Automatic annotation (TrEMBL):
It comes from Mycobacterium tuberculosis. Residues 2-103 form the Acyl-CoA dehydrogenase/oxidase C-terminal domain. This is Acyl-CoA dehydrogenase. GO terms for molecular function: acyl-CoA dehydrogenase activity. InterPro entries: AcylCo_DH-like_C, AcylCo_DH/oxidase_C. Keywords: FAD, Flavoprotein, Oxidoreductase.
Amino acid sequence: MNRKQFGKPLSTFQTVAAQLAEVYIASRTIDLVAKSVIWRLAEDLDAGDDLGVLGYWVTSQAPPAMQICHHLHGGMGMDVTYPMHRYYSTIKDLTRLLGGPSHRLELLGARCSLT
């Protein structure tokens, strides 16, 4: 179902399109890095660098992407009867568990300085 505003699909507005692009870039990047980690582990290769990048991207980009999704869904994600609240809660918990983007970037930088 396409939400409409002023008789037009919401996705046709430039600001909305830019926000959707931000979400797409974040989700695509996280997906690609996760697949790289999985492939490296399956091939018995060191996945440490890719895990570091994945941790950083998840903690720095997933929370803002979820906020955009909440906004674009008209705040429906804040309602516990709508499944989006579970995804957002999971992302926030995962971000805290991983130590946040600054911590992940420090770890990644330290790993890079060793090579």
